[in-house]
């Protein structure tokens, strides 16, 4: 055992009311909205006080610092516990004496469950505020207290006022500007929803159809992460002014193909099919099998027509074909075509998340992998007509590598919300999963190229223009994920020449967090960046304290991908392409490790930062945005391309030499 497991008195604790009630409701503001240009309160309209809100109180979890220690212990290449992941899927699939799990998933739940006192104190506050205990329930992971409360009750409890907010797209949502809790119990509460977060929806309201959840990563209206389309080069709609080029290694500077990526990143076709790899898609984003087939027949001829991902539906996720356009199919077609082609014959899993009515959030996805996480977003069961009537908590075991090409801005959600979600990535890392997120396509600006007004984006408000303070993306800034930026082949250069930061159509997301502290694995790389290449910007542009998380960690090509979308082959741009490519390289390394009786690599950042020479350092180009040239790619780590692009031939021996 790595750790003694805490005694579990929590079920009993829930049933007893032993702690003194906080009598004086000495409320203090617990969370306050940072402001967003795209959502504004409707003037003169107040929601009916009888509407029911699914109030969820996120209780402060225990032992999070120990979680960080355990993650580093199994991920630090210098640790003799490297690769001894807890309850890793590979452990279950390919049992080997070399990597037995130290903790079961149940034990991980126990480790982080709130202290019994925390559950008592918060529950007693609810009861003393007039909510009968029969209405209060505790989640399976004992980390959320749930109660259905009317808006009037919630307003009294949280000393707040709910309003109807309208999005620029016409969507409506119930939220508040800030909320308060009694000072005596504040330390026991992480966050309460639905409040200031634009990520939840209400239940039981006759008008609910108009009050949809807010940030759906799959919605092309509010996702600046979806890839951008360039010219169509083959098939219906092909640009007649473009002479068709052969798909060859000599044309990689104008068309990226799977063969180009193998040449760029020094790897060959997979052979073993012994690992597991997933991409995540958010409905209504969907792939078309006919597009996959078109791609195989032109660009991956070893793959038979009909080869499909393993379809894991989360919360009603369907491969919808009702609406078809680049905005519906571009992301999924891109991610799947490249992931499948690069790791074939390894099968790729598709975590298709959210029904066609509501979509889903990152939390719905995380719930499906860990029933103890249990957020929050109350999207499912979906009461709407045609909506998914269940909630998929703990339905799937995480694959060894998971790539997501969707994201939001740190400033869109509260710090408490992001920290809680980030800690869930920490738990997945403990269990042996590599989590990759694309870093965003707007350089130092956020989705929609938006920037902020104040030095601290997370505490300020958005600027209506495209200038101001840099706007970092989330989850890329979570220190427990690997954030992937974008590069391109230099114009006219060969596939063997060094690449530069992507400056075609999109700019690699990168910069410094306003929420997360700098993780130790990164500190010497970032320190050396500031020592040798200190940017000229001030605290007006970004948090220049040199104590916060810098991103991305790594990068991979993100320009000119030849992708089959809606029956033609077009060129596509984005860190959306970079993330599945990087994930494919890690998957091929996992195959070799698993074949040698070792674990999957799990959380890779500590190994990459300790061995920067296994990546191709990118030293030119920048990530402009917010009316500036952004940061510049330099030798060593930089906030444009991270440590650089993968070099499989150099990465493999390093990872194979680890326990
Ligand atoms: C709240 O109401 C929903 C819908 O009726 C129900 O499914 C859920 O169990 C209720 N939650 C609690 C904590 O009572
Ligand atoms: C991978 O397979 C494809 C299709 O069979 C082939 O064209 C390509 O040359 C192979 N690449 C390598 C590096 O083996
Ligand atoms: C930068 O981050 C540090 C560490 O979180 C924090 O103390 C400081 O207030 C931040 N600076 C600004 C200008 O927001
Ligand atoms: C590719 O990988 C091999 C090891 O397989 C290594 O010797 C070689 O230097 C790498 N090529 C480049 C261009 O880095």
From TrEMBL:
Binds 1 Ca(2+) ion per subunit. Residues 255-658 form the Peptidase S53 domain. It holds the Pfam family Pro-kuma_activ. SMART domains: Pro-kuma_activ. InterPro entries: Peptidase_S8/S53_dom_sf, S53_propep, Sedolisin_dom, Tripeptidyl-peptidase_I. Gene3D superfamilies: Peptidase S8/S53 domain. Residues 1-20 form the signal peptide. Keywords: Calcium, Glycoprotein, Hydrolase, Metal-binding, Protease, Secreted, Serine protease, Signal, Virulence, Zymogen. One of its GO terms (molecular function) is tripeptidyl-peptidase activity. GO terms for cellular component: extracellular region. Ca(2+) binds at residues 617-618, 636, 638. One of its GO terms (biological process) is proteolysis. Its EC number is 3.4.14.10. Secreted tripeptidyl-peptidase which degrades proteins at acidic pHs and is involved in virulence. PANTHER family: PROTEASE S8 TRIPEPTIDYL PEPTIDASE I CLN2 (PTHR14218), SERINE PROTEASE AORO, PUTATIVE (AFU_ORTHOLOGUE AFUA_6G10250)-RELATED (PTHR14218:SF19). This is tripeptidyl-peptidase II. It comes from Alectoria fallacina.
């Amino acid at each position: 055992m790595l750790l003694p497991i805490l005694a579990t008195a929590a079920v009993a604790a829930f049933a007893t009311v032993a702690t003194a009630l906080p009598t004086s409701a000495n409320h203090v503001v617990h969370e306050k909205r940072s402001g967003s240009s795209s959502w504004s309160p409707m003037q003169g309209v107040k929601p009916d006080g009888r509407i029911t809100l699914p109030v969820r109180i996120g209780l402060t979890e225990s032992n999070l610092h120990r979680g960080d220690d355990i993650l580093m212990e199994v991920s630090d290449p210098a640790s003799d516990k490297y690769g001894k992941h807890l309850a890793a899927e590979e452990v279950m699939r390919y049992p080997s004496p070399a990597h037995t799990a130290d903790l079961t998933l149940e034990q991980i739940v126990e480790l982080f469950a709130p202290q019994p006192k925390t559950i008592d104190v918060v529950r007693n506050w609810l009861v003393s505020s007039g909510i009968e205990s029969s209405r209060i329930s505790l989640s399976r992971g004992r980390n959320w207290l749930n109660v259905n409360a009317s808006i009037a009750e919630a307003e009294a409890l949280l000393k707040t006022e709910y309003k109807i907010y309208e999005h620029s797209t016409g969507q409506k949502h119930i939220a508040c500007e800030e909320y308060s809790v009694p000072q005596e119990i504040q330390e026991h509460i992480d966050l309460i929803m639905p409040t200031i977060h634009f990520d939840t929806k209400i239940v039981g309201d006759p008008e609910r159809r108009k009050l949809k959840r807010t940030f759906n990563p799959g919605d092309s209206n509010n996702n600046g992460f979806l890839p951008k389309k360039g010219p169509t080069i083959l098939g219906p709609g092909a640009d007649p002014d473009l002479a068709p080029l052969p798909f060859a290694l000599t044309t990689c500077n104008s068309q990226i193909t799977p063969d180009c990526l193998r040449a760029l990143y020094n790897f060959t076709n997979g052979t073993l099919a012994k690992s597991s790899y997933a991409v995540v898609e958010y409905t209504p984003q969907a792939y078309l099998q006919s597009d996959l087939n078109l791609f195989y027949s032109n660009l991956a001829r070893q793959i038979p027509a009909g080869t499909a991902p393993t379809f894991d539906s989360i919360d009603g996720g369907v491969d919808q074909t009702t609406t078809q356009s680049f905005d519906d199919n571009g992301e999924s077609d891109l991610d799947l075509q490249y992931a499948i082609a690069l790791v074939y014959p390894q099968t790729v899993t598709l975590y298709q998340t959210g029904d066609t009515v509501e979509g889903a959030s990152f939390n719905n996805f995380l719930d499906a992998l860990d029933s103890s996480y249990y957020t929050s977003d109350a999207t499912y069961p979906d009461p709407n007509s045609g909506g998914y009537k269940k909630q998929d908590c703990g339905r799937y075991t995480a694959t060894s590598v998971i790539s997501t090409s969707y994201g939001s801005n740190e400033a869109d959600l509260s710090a408490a919300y992001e920290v809680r979600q980030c800690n869930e990535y920490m738990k997945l890392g403990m269990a042996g999963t590599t989590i990759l997120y694309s870093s965003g396509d707007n350089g130092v600006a956020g989705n929609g190229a938006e920037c902020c007004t104040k030095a601290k984006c997370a505490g300020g408000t958005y600027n209506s223009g495209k200038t101001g303070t840099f706007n970092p993306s989330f989850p890329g800034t979570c220190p427990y994920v690997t954030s992937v930026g974008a590069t391109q082949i230099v114009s006219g250069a060969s596939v063997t020449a060094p690449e530069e930061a992507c400056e075609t159509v999109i700019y690699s997301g990168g910069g410094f967090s306003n929420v997360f502290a700098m993780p130790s694995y990164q500190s010497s790389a970032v320190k050396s960046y500031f020592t040798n290449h200190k940017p000229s910007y001030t605290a007006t542009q970004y948090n220049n304290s040199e104590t916060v998380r810098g991103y991305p960690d790594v990068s991979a090509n993100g320009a000119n991908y030849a992708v089959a979308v809606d029956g033609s082959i077009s060129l596509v741009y984005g860190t959306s392409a970079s993330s599945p490519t990087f994930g494919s390289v890690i998957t091929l390394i996992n195959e070799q490790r698993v074949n040698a009786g070792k674990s999957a690599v799990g959380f890779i950042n500590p190994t990459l930062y300790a061995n920067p020479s296994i990546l191709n350092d990118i030293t030119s180009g920048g990530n402009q945005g917010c009316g500036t040239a952004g940061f510049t790619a330099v030798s060593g780590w930089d906030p444009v391309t991270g440590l650089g692009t993968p070099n499989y031939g150099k990465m493999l021996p390093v990872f194979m030499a680890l326990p």
